[in-house]
Amino acid sequence: MDYTVMNVAPIVLLPFFAFVLNSFIVKRFTTLAVSISCGAIFGSFIFAFRIFKDFVFGTYATDAYVHKFFNWIDLSFGAEIFKINMGIYIDNMTAVMLLMVTGVATLIHVFSSWYMHDDARYGRFFVYMSLFTSAMLGLVLSDNLLSVFIFWELMGFCSYSLIGFYYEKEAAGNASVKAFMTTRVGDVFFLLGILALWSVVGSVTFVDIYAAVAAGKFEGVMALGIPVITVAAFSLFMGTIGKSAQFPLQVWLPDAMQGPTPCSALIHAATMVAAGVYLSLRAYPLMEAAGMLPYIAYIGAITAFGAATIALIQTDIKAVLAYSTISQLGYMVLGIGVGSYNAAFMHLITHAIFKACLFLAAGSVIHSLHDPHTHAGVQEMPRMGGLKNKLKFTWIAMWCCTLAISGIPFFSGFVSKDRILGDALLMALSNKWYIAPTILGFFAALLTAFYMCRMMFLTFHGQPRDKEVYDHCHEEHLTWNSNVPLLILSVFTLGIWFSGSLTGQGLVKVAGDRYEWFQTLIHEPVPAKFATHRRQQWGSEDIKSGANFPRASYDSNHGLSEEEAHHVHHIHHIGAIMSIIIAFSGVFLAFLMYVKKSVDPGWWVSTFSGWYKSLKNKYYFDDLYIGVLIQKGLLPFNNLLAAFDMGVYDRYAVDGWATVNRVMYKFARWFDDLIVDTVAVDGTGASVRLFNLVLRTVQSGKIQFYFLIIVFVLAGYAWKLVIN
Amino acid sequence: MITLPSYLFISFVLFICGLVVMIARKNIVAIMLGIELILNAAALNFAAYTKFINQNLDGHIISLFIIVIAAAEAAVGLAIVIRFYQIKESIHIDDATQLQS
Fold first, then answer.
1. Together in a domain, A607 and A635
2. Does A224 fall in a domain?
3. What average pLDDT does the segment A604-632 reach?
4. Which of A395, A489, A684, A724 has the fewest beta carbons closer than 10 A?
5. How confident is the model at residue A547 (pLDDT cuts 50, 70, 90)?
6. Cα–Cα–Cα angle for A114, A119, A124, nearest 5°?
7. In chain A, pLDDT over 70 holds for what percent of residues?
8. One domain for residues A707 and A626
9. Cβ-defined contact of B19 to A702 (cutoff 8 Å)
10. Which residues, including other chains, have CB under 8 Å from residue A518's CB and lie 6 or more apart?
């Protein structure tokens, strides 16, 4: 199959055209606009599925890729080459990612048509969602960092509008600004990284960057005493930190739940935060060459652990999910840091599916529960409880996802998370720098299982704590378009879709090797292979499998020798057993605390009261950023600038200039009135009129008058003669 | 004894009368009458000066010329007036504002 504009561009353009069209018709034809949005994203899904089928089941294999571009900007002058290309880059990772984004986004769109139905701005929500999805798909398809950046910023805008969707609420408005400004910090670094890469490579296309890494173009290139490759890798990773809510820029994501729940599902699962991890995966060869991986591992582990601890004490159902997202993103980044490229990406996909499902299920719960007095949805878990009797379907779907995120065997989360932890363990044994991140990672796994089950027990089990809310809960509110997305997503939380073996490591083979498609097809880009890559303009023939790209088969040794592979597998087995024990102990602890009530949570709170307090305050990050950084640092600086602006610039420059102008105006006015108007203009008129008067009087046309004049003149002359 | 100033006075009165008639009257015929008066005043002056100062016939001959010229002028002028009257049906001086009818 050939890849042309006609069969790739619709993936991005269908939702984009839906956005453009809906912007105009949304007020009058709301239902039509919603249908267009859903239909457009489903159309994208079909195109994406075609690519997925082609790459995963079809003739393309292992590290096959399609790279097509056209020249966008050409400012070359003589020997100075300045060309920016735009294009698509599709490899196995893109194919999987496209399918995930379009699939999850389609289901979220369908769910939103139920969830947002009674909202006053029902249609507008879909306008933003379409643009959001389109931007994410554009980012995934991009072949260069510049277009990634463009779509990245578009997503930043969409998340801003969606988080602040209920802009009547002050908290929502603040949260949207916070999200926008926090990610902006990362974006500035990202742009810096693009410039750094441009300065060395002379191109921002991924394949060129890989080729430059392979060719050693970065060696010895320094800027201010720092290797440029370090600057570039660090800056790109800062972009990931901002977008994927990693420590220390994680503060925006918990607040982002102020938006409608389906948009939280979209942000937390398919689009926004996935983009950051996706960028890091794309820039993986660069990070590796720059020696950034240990730092990335530390950032990921700290994020995973810190967010998991905060999630322990949250009472808002969406807040628990928001912190779990940060924690799981920390796992992905940890996976990148320990060189577990495949597992990190797998966790991105599995997490997207179960987190979307979790958020949609939480949306169902919130929408079904209505405060009888305020008619607002109930999000506080202390007011829930016992809902499994009423929301049976939601309950089952949410348990599937909870087991998946907790890392219970046979669910997808176990497959991916366990492989990240296994690789981390392997690294920790050979390199002592990785010991701390690995321990934090295992701890976070325990906490994840605990807090997710805590959330489930508090929400669905036990006795109803708020009888009024419980009685007002109506299951019949749930219709097909709320349940079908949950059903589909919860089916895909099963591990079998991603790996034939239980852990993805060959520990327990559930099915044969041919189910190991994920591990077979997703590999980190090997820079050396791109040194001589063929450039393809649009319209040229694809590089197809065959001579260039042999079809891959699953290699359970991962290219290692038998002895090494044995060692690796051994460590992975230990890791898998540890994760299973940890996950079950987390679930069991939650069971003891919230179902059996044999362990009192209050005891933990009073014993670790100091820690509890810092958790309550989210480790004081908001206080640090808002109280210290902004209040003490930026605000005085801002005030200083404002004072300068008001006191000096406005007062002296602007107002002073106004005064000068006023004086000049007065003079000009005087000059105009007196000299120009009175003397020149009116004077000309007056003199003409005067002259006219004389001439008119003399030229009367009356002959006798002429004669009289002659007489007077002669008389005068005679008089003069007489006098003389 | 009639002296030169008496002649000149009469001549002056005639001249002024003619001048006033010429300027003040609107009737073309009256204006021509005024012109006659002025010519007569001039002729009287010639006659008076030649009698009292030159004591030859030069002034008298010029007086005669003046009378002839006045007659010719009156003939031509009246012809013009008649022609003018035929065109404009008026002999008012202010109607004579066109060089070409």
1. no
2. no
3. 77
4. A724
5. very low
6. 95
7. 91
8. yes
9. no
10. A96, A342, A346, A498, A499, A504
| pLDDT tens per residue across span A241-271 | 988 888 888 888 888 888 888 888 888 887 8
Asked if A711's CB is within 8 angstroms of B23's CB, the reply is yes
A708·B23 Cβ contact <8 A: yes
Judged by CB atoms closer than 8 Å, whether chains meet at B23 and A702 is answered as no
Across the range A387-410, mean pLDDT stands at 86
Return the HEC string of A447-467: HHHHHHHHHHHHHHCCCCCCH
* ipTM higher than the 0.85 cut: no
Assess contact for A160 and A298: CB atoms under 8 A: no
Residue of A699, A702, A703, A713 to mutate, interface with B, max B Cβ within 10 Å: A703
Residue at A67 is within a domain: no
In this complex, which of B23, B26, B97 lies closest to A707 when CB atoms are compared? Answer: B23
Residue A388's CB: how many other CB atoms inside 10 A? 17
| Judgement on whether residues A421 and A502 belong to the same structural domain of the protein | yes
Q: How many domains does chain A have?
A: 2
Q: Which pLDDT score, from 0 to 100, does residue A199 have?
A: 85
Whether the predicted pLDDT of A81 surpasses 60:
yes
* Domain presence at residue A498: yes
Which residues span the domain enclosing A646? Answer: 622-723
Query: For tokens 């597998």, what's the residue?
Result: A569
Indicate the residue type of A177. Answer: V
Residue A609 exposure: Cα atoms within 13 Å on the Cβ side: 3
- Out of B19, B24, B96, name the one closest to residue A703 (CB): B96
Task: Round the average pLDDT of chain B to a whole number and report it.
Answer: 90
Q: What is the architecture, at CATH level 2, of domain B4-95?
A: Orthogonal Bundle (1.10)
CB contact under 8 A, A703 and B22: no
- Give yes or no: residues A406 and A516 share one domain: yes
Q: Please check whether residues A586 and A662 belong to one and the same domain.
A: no
Question: Are A701 and B97 a contacting pair at CB < 8 A?
Answer: yes
A290 and A357 Cβ atoms separated by less than 8 Å: no
pLDDT above 80 for A562: no
Point out the domain boundary residue: A581, A616, A651. Answer: A616
A373-378 average pLDDT score: 72
Query: What is the rounded CA–CA span in Å between residue B94 and residue A699?
Result: 13
pLDDT digits (tens, 9 = 90+) for B43-65: 999 999 998 888 888 889 999 99
Mean pLDDT of chain A: 83
Q: Secondary structure of A298-317 in the HEC alphabet?
A: HHHHHHHHHHHHHHCCCCEH
The Cα–Cα gap between A507 and A515 comes to 14
Task: State the DSSP H helix or E strand holding residue A73, giving kind and residue range, or none if neither.
Answer: strand A65-74
Closest alpha carbon within chain B to A710: B23
- B10-17: list long-range contacts, CB under 8 Å, 24+ apart: B10/B44, B11/B41, B11/B42, B11/B44, B11/B45, B11/B48, B12/B41, B14/B38, B14/B40, B14/B41, B14/B44, B15/B41, B15/B42
Assess whether A688 and A663 both reside in one domain.
Answer: yes
Confidence bin at A605 (pLDDT 50/70/90): confident
Residue A600 makes CB contacts below 8 A (sequence gap 6+) with A593
Q: Is the pLDDT of residue A638 over 50?
A: yes
| Angle, CA of A494, A500 and A506, to the nearest 5° | 120
Instruction: Please identify among residues 671-710 of chain A the ones whose CB lies closer than 8 Å to any CB of chain B.
Output: 701-704, 707-708
Whether pLDDT at A144 is above 90? no
pLDDT at A556: 59
Q: Cβ–Cβ of B93/A703 closer than 8 Å?
A: yes
> How near does any CA of chain B get to the CA of A689, in Å?
25
| Those residues with Cβ within 8 angstroms of residue A254's Cβ, 6 or more apart along the chain or in another chain | A310, A319, A322, A323, A326, A618
pLDDT of res. A511: 55
